[in-house]
Please model this.
Amino acid sequence: MSVTYPLHPPGRSVSMLRARPEALVLLGALLTVPLEPAGSQNAPSLTWEVQRYDGWFNNLRHHQRGAAGYRLQRLVPANYADGVYQALEEPLLPNPRRLSDAAMQGRAGLPSRQNRTVLGVFFGYHVLSDLVSVERPGCPAEFLNIHIPPGDPVFDPNRSGDVVLPFQRSRWDPKTGLSPNNPRDLTNEVTGWLDGSAIYGSSHSWSDELRSFSGGQLASGPDPAFPRDSQDPLLMWTAPDPATGQRGSQGLYAFGAERGNRDPFVQALGLLWFRYHNLCAQRLAREHPSWGDEELFQHARKRVIATYQNIALYEWLPSFLSKTPPEYKEYHPFLDPSISPEFLAASEQFFSTMVPPGVYMRNASCHFQNIVNKDFGSSPALRVCNSYWIREITGLAPASSPAQTTWPAASNVAEIWGCPAIVKPCWPWGWKPRRTGVTSTLKWTPRLFSKEEIAEIRNITLKDVLVAVANVDPSALQSNVFIWHPGAPCPQPQQLTTEGLPPCVPLTVSDYFKGSGAGFGITIVAICCFPLVSLLIAWVVAHFRGRERRKLQRKDKESMKKEAVKDGVSAMEWPGPRETSYPVTIQLLPDRCLQVLDRRLSVLRTIQLRPPQQVNLILSNNRGRRTLLLKIPKEYDLVLLFNSEEERGIFVQQLQGFCVRWTLGLDVAEMGEKELFRKAVTKQQRARILEVFFRHLFAQVLDIDQADAGTLPLDSSQKVWEALTCELSRAEFAESLGLKPQDMFVESMFSLADKDGNGYLSFREFLDILVVFMKGSPEDKSRLMFTMYDLDGNGFLSKDEFFTMMRSFIEISNNCLSKAQLAEVVESMFRESGFQDKRELTWEDFHFMLRDHDSELRRTQLCVKGGGGGVGDIFKPNISSRVSFITKTPGECSCPRGGGLPTSEAPELGGPGLKKRFGKKAVLSPPRLYTEALQEKMQRGLLAQKLQQFKRFVENYRRHIVCTTIFSAICVGLFAERAYYYAFASPPTEIAQTTLVGIILSRGTAANVSFMYSYILLTMCRNLITFLRETFLNRYVPFDAAVDFHRWIAMAAVVLSILHSAGHVVNVYIFSVSPLSVLACIFPHVFVNDGSKLPQKFYWWFFQTVPGMSGVLLLLVLAIMYVFASHHFRRHSFRGFWLTHHLYVLLYVLLIIHGSFGLIQLPSFYIYFLVPALIFVGDKLVSLSRKKVEISVVKAELLPSGVTHLQFQRPKGFEYKSGQWVRIACLALGTNEYHPFTFTSAPHEDTLSLHIRAVGPWTTRLREVYSSPTGDGYAIYPKLYLDGPFGEGHQEWHKFEVSVLVGGGIGVTPFASILKDLVFKSSLGSQMLCKKIYFIWVTRTQRQFEWLADIIREVEENDCQDLVSVHIYITQLAEKFDLRTTMLYICERHFQKVLNRSLFTGLHSITHFGRPPFEPFFNSLQEVHPEVRKIGVFSCGPPGMTKNVEKACQLINRQDQAHFVHHYENF
Model:
């Protein structure tokens, strides 16, 4: 213990424990650094240097010695387990709990032999708080947990054996504990000088918080007799009351000592010195009215410290040493006044042995008071073990007056002291003086005190201070309050023991997570529901947008349908058991038809009624009498449910009138509703009957055993008889063919097959017509067609009847040919066959016209859908037989040529399904090979094929692989660096010891998402990408894959964001159950360990911190953006995608906020974000500069299939390349959203053109806006805003000798520009690498994109060098491979042969029926161009088509021939 004492000259210090323990007074070493008065900028100068609060410069040679934060000074060498910092534990040392039990056992209530009072014991605690403080836990947190022996009566009465007392090690000097030569040393948080730091604090800032800066006094609370409550920014220890669990700062006061409220007696001593200071300041203010606050405060402080030192050294210390301290002689600058850990341990144990079990409480009149205890009643004394950190004593206001607590302590005799045997001898560690020669005289200096003041201070005792602040009778206390002598006032009734006192309250166990489990789970579930909520919102938006689009599409249809059904009757149709009824409308038409319409007014069913048919009507007679059953022979029953009996009656009346008008029999009966339902023959039952019908029908035609026709029910004979006797209606016949009942082909075929003319087809009638198609020769089939269309039955086929036949065929293609085209076909066919002078044809003439197409007629079948169970599959057409390919014959140039599939590709008629099911094989002439191999193909094994496929894949995507690998490696490296840092290169907070998995996961993914969310911006710098793809970098970076890379990064970033959130969920849980001492180490700038122990609840981390709240908002924004950016919702609501994707601004704002207020590490997001953000902003500024320019539309044309052709001015200086695209906006639509479209104009043209198909609300409204231009005399169209051009992979077409362009649907638009550009450049004689282009146009019907046919026609006219070969595939005509498509195919080949142009498109290009077989087509290119080693394939269209192209390229690339490089774009 060292003392600073302002009674001696500056520059002197005395150490009582080191070299001169008898020198107990410091008279001048306190005043070495001038202090700037706080709160008074112009305070008058003091006559001495004000002592620093932190103890620095008290030793003039070693300034830091004894200062706050200086290490403890060891008396004996350290004894760590590793010699550095690890403490010795079991089994090297005994269990601490067992040691405590052994040392502290014994009988309580033995009085002190020297009659030391309890006040002396607690005054000793107060002196210790002034000299040393090592209670604050160290950081990073280290625990020496104490294992409790099983069966411990206090901690483990249930003998569980798993009880552990957490014990956190104290703060140490970070400069120590680095090697055996520098073992760890603890630090003293207060000064080691007796300088009143327990009254004024050990720092200037702490003292300022205690001051009022008025009159030199310390600040008081609402009651001027008490200090302010303990609160921030003071670091007062506010531990909860262990007896009651009470928390908070109420009842705890602000003192200079951090733990000045640990018990009522230490607290009372703090109040005593608080009042004594203010009393001195008031007296000085009266004596020196001219002094300011600073002078008053420092003079009062000087006086209080001198008094405090005088009492401690000359009154309290002799009571324990039984000696008077020696006289101060001289200053020793080499004496280290620091406190030793040995002194600290011995002094604490010494005082602990003297604390009695209780303290009698009395007033000034010696009246001892009873204490009211919770759950115990009253007791004669205050139980000390239950009074620590107490806020309120029942029946006694604690610290209402310092005397009320100190008086009783002065009358209570402490217990006998003693050191346990295991820690003896304890005197040399702290209290036993190591030198003698103690004197009682003091030197003084006129600069600090006058002689009179020194004498006055020397005569002040603690009793005088008590009397002064309490203003009571001095006779109530003995003269020396630290010793009780016989005859002293108010003796205690008896020495206290534990008898009659309440027991110590059991230790309270705090569950930090108690009551938070449900809320924590609900919070996590709510956050996890963000995507579901976003999905629901997106579904609602898509639903309303879809409804809006459908309204626009069916606006005209609704009025027509409403007009058509104004005479209908509404009802609900019952389809059968376990199925839901649906609303229908019933119409009785004038042509003796009963028609059933659905809610969309589409025809569901038409029933033809012919006399003398008998109609049976069964009405329900119960359950509201609102159901009826309508039975019509040879039809399945119709069960209707009406809203009421009245509505049913109206329909019955209409039906009765209908039957009377058309002489139909009507039989009406009644029965119960359940029986009515049971008797009804539903559509499902009829379908099962027809299934048996068709099975046995095919069994008859193909000579299949009856048993193989399918599995039949148990009563199979009856079911078969019922099926074979049933007859098909016209609607069922049309449905079996997949056609509409009103088609002319159905009408002709049905009339031909219905031999008895009853309006239904029997089993035999259907069998006769089916045999012709299944087994008939080409002559039989042509005779069948001749008979079908010999309408007048005269045995001849007139030209008009031939025209009618052809018109029935083109119904399949939605009348793709006009009447003029059809007439031209008929005339051409008659003329080619030499029948131009004939007006009627015989069957022989008709068959002669088809003489060149016997193979097509042989393959012609009747596609029946009713076979079920795979039977219908055996009649699938050989579509590929009607596909033309490219071949190269020696001596000939490349030209179109008909052919079939290779043998390996040609499916047999029966197919594997038929052979497996029926055991028989239908014979078909083998298809012709379309080409002959010009070079021997080496047979490869499976492994070699896989290696070749992998080689081609790497060759095709090497740029993608390299860039993806580099990007992924960076991400892995960032994660690994953060993981290593927090797992091994531990940061100062040692957070990994608290939450290793959570911190590694959260920090590693944080680095990843910071990098990804930053550099994902570069993938959207369209202008930069368009520029860079023209540079050499395009050889190394796949700029065309920027959008795909954007999606890939976004998906990876979302996954990592989820993992980041999962890591933080783990962290939040662990932080919510970690003590405050640990959190204060991890987050030193957020938490202060004030002893309250309770950590923040989980919701504080989620919603009351900037990182937490911004993180929750980020997850919400990500959920919205990700769901609306999905392919499905982007197609259904592009505007929703457009608006939600602009949340990226909010996303990055939240990311900056989230990363800038990091709780764990310094902000680092800006390191990743700054450069990409600057580039992105620059790219955006370039786009914005273009978006401000209005562009006038010079031409708007509405084309078929919802295509809008816009032609607009070319901005000045606007340069682009064929295949590039732009983004346009039209403010006339009421929105500023931009949509991407590809140019259909060529770069050499003076205007720009786009072809836009109306597939959504925006494009539909765009079509409406440009459908009605304004202006007088000339059209004025709304203006456009343009952003672009931007590049894509289709620009690479000119880099290949041979390029294949595949366009599907509206995806042909980029190729229109490319084809025109190619022809223009070739006409100028430009040197190009590309020597041949094959353009494959896949369309459902050529009428969908007739505008492209005009472009192709222009290309054909200008293509003098045969650069372009165009192949058109019409897919709709291949869906029904029957008699009609056969005739259309024959007509198409006839037109190509005679007129060298297509019947459907009018082009010289080849027209195919069906979908393009890409693999055989690419194989043919290898034969035609054997010298070409790399062929470019560019596809644009629906995903299904581009996937087929990609698959074909992969299959071809397995061969060691030409390499097909595929670039694709989906729409």
Notes: The first helix runs from residue 96 to 104. Confidence is low (pLDDT under 50) at residues 1-43, 419-444, 704-715, 866-939. The longest strand covers residues 582-589.
